[in-house]
Amino acid sequence: MASRTARPTDPPLRQRNALAPGILGAAALVAGMALIGGEFAIVISFIVAILALIIAWFAVQAGQWWWAVVMVAIAVVWNPVVPFAFAAPVWLTVHIVGAAAFLAAGAMISTVRNEPAR
């Protein structure tokens, strides 16, 4: 049998399901830096916690459990039920680190794409 070579029209062999939630989570954290200590900070907490749990699920599905641990930790820090009371400089630092973690996880979590039956 002849080996199949990749053509420009072929779909990629891997898919990154966590990329969109990773970008959205990072954007929410960057935008949330302006809301630290305000009344709408709880909205950012809901968004970040939910997106972190979604990415954690994609990490488990991809077999990359270490990202699931990171994302669950982010969900705990930004949980809206029992919020942490950090000082503003600490929250700014944690927002930046969290945004970097969202982007890194979104870019690195990938699964093998199943080829459709022909």
TrEMBL record:
Which chain regions cross the lipid bilayer?
18-36, 42-60, 65-86, 92-112
State the Pfam families in the record.
DUF6804 (PF20619)
> What domain of life is recorded for the organism?
Bacteria
Keyword Membrane attached: yes
Keywords, alphabetical:
Membrane, Transmembrane, Transmembrane helix
Membrane among keywords: yes
Q: Which InterPro entries match?
A: DUF6804
Entry protein name:
SPW repeat-containing protein
